[in-house]
Amino acid sequence: MAKRHLYTFIVAPNCSARLRKFTVRRSVVIAGVSSLAAAFLFTVAAGIHYTGMFFQWSDYDSLLKANKQLVLENASYRLSAERLSEKLSSLETVSKKLSLLSGFDFDNPQSGSGGTGGIRESRAREGWGRPSRAPLKDLRELTESAGQLELRFKDLEGFYLDQALVHASTPNMMPVKGYPSAGFGGRADPMDGGRDYHVGLDISAPYGNKVVAAADGLVVYAGPRAGYGNVVILNHRFGTQTRYGHLSAFNVLAGQKIKRGDVIGFVGNTGRSTGPHLHYEVRLNGAPVNPLRFIRR
Known about the structure:
- It is a single chain.
- This protein is an alpha+beta fold.
- The protein folds into three domains: 2-64; 77-169; 179-296, Distorted Sandwich (Glucose Permease (Domain IIA)).
- Helices cover 42% and strands 26% of the residues.
- The protein has helices at 26-102, 121-126, 135-169, 291-296, and strands at 6-11, 20-25, 179-182, 185-188, 195-198, 201-204, 210-212, 217-225, 229-235, 240-250, 257-258, 263-267, 277-284, 287-289.
- The strands form three sheets. Strands 3, 6, 7, 8, 9, 10, 11, 12, 13 and 14 form a ten-stranded antiparallel β-sheet that branches.
- A hairpin with a 4-residue loop joins strand 9 and strand 10 (240-250).
């Protein structure tokens, strides 16, 4: 019965070598196999554990790098937001000054579609150099302020473009170098001495002096006309028209677009005239008005 607890192992090193026999207790074999199995399982478990740890450390390293990148990007964002805030504050100041100069009240809903915006006073007191807990909210506020400023500047641009157009189309300069020899209104007719109503301004100037357009416009007539002699008639925007009479020669043709200051003709003595001068006339919606009203403005 005792032999049942023994195992015999026969070992043959090679075909011609002598056989060797080993007898080992069963408990020793079981202990050895158990130890090998435990060692194998431990090795496998250790391998799985360290493999998991390797991936965890790899993920941690990636997260650490990503966190550093986010910190740098956040710092860059805050710097950009601070600079943008300063620019918006500066633009808000410029916008208010332009609004005051134009006399256009953008903060009054009745005055038009001009928006109001910029940095709120509370935001200015907080200071953009401090860390913000809600960067996305700050960005939304900056974007909203920029949009409102853009609308305001578009309104200002439109307003000043309209003003520039009005200015360019208003005959507010003297068309020739000389001195007024007859004003607008009632007078004695220079030809027969009778009562007369002068619908323009006579400007005495040397024969051949340049006559320039008093405003931007379109030449609607350039030729002789009774009383005026050689005359150039310009139509301007907003119902304004100017006439330049008694010219000696023309420098424009009908249908030609003219800019303020362009030479349109030369001083002469044609038509109903007593000497070299320019008859300068301004009409508003067809009715003659005193040219000095525009020149003084």
